[in-house]
Amino acid sequence: MCTVTFIPRRTGYYLAMNRDEKRVRSVGLPPSESRVDGRMVVCPSEPGGGTWIALNDLGGCFALVNWYSVPERVTGKPVSRGDVIPSVITANSACSAETALATLPLDRFNPFRLIGVFPVSEEVLEWRWNVRQLVRRKHRWLAQQWISSGFDEPRAQAERGSCFQQARSQRSSETLAWLRRLHRSHLPAAGPFSTCMHREDACTVSYTEIVLQRRKAALRYHPSPPCRPVQPSIHLLLSAPR
Fold it and tell me: Which of 181, 174, 213, 210 shows the shortest CA–CA distance to 31?
């Protein structure tokens, strides 16, 4: 249950992610920096490890959403999908990401969609795992969204997608302020299908924002539904190459 929005910019990109989870799930840990295979990486994390979004010092990022429209599930005990991004976070191309994905025991992961943004080559890639096959899709360097929902994924995609397209007609479309408004939006009504999601048993639990502009990459983390003001938000900077 998540919404990821990608917005290309002349000298970089914006990416925002609402993470939707059950209210009883453990609270995620705020972002921290670490060095992985010589690269600096910043990401929030699960208490037990793993993450749903990460940024590296090349300015590249990865975001993962569950794929509820695929009904098939792993038999036996699955591996946490939070382990996917740590395996690829230092990748600087689609090929290196796929090499890393090939080292994972994919047959033990439930369905997911992994989005990778590579600003040096201006590529947006998506890997779809359906328990049987990993398929790569290349997307154009254009504004777009990925939406997941364990409640009703097709309807959530239709409702949120419609709000996204309507919002793009606004004069402020694709600015950072516009992106933040979009991710705290309760249109068409606060509930299971709004971008900032609220249900009795689940809600949007955090908002993560990545901004790459020239040689600066920033990750901001809002540890609550984005419709609620929280101070302080966490703001980390990394240096990204040209």
Answer: 210
Sheet containing 234-239, strands listed edge to edge, beginning at the edge strand earlier in sequence: 144-148, 2-9, 12-22, 202-213, 216-222, 234-239
CA angle 72, 74, 76 (to 5 degrees): 140
Integer angstrom CA distances of residue 192 from 2, 66, 67, 164: 11, 16, 16, 16
236 within 8 A of 54, measured Cβ to Cβ: no
What pLDDT is attached to residue 26? Answer: 87
Give the span between the Cα atoms of 92 and 153, in whole angstroms: 31
What are the tens digits of pLDDT across the range 56-100?
999 999 999 999 999 999 999 999 999 999 999 999 899 999 999
**39-58 confidence digits (pLDDT tens):** 899 999 999 889 999 999 99
Which single residue is written with the structure tokens 């290349």?
A: 138
CA distance readout (Å), 16 to 34, 36, 101, 211: 21, 23, 23, 9
- How many Cα atoms within 13 Å fall on the side-chain side of residue 171? 0
Asked if 143 contacts 168 with a C-beta cutoff of 8 angstroms, the reply is yes
Whole-model pTM? Answer: 0.95
The answer to whether the CB of 120 falls within 8 A of the CB of 94 is no
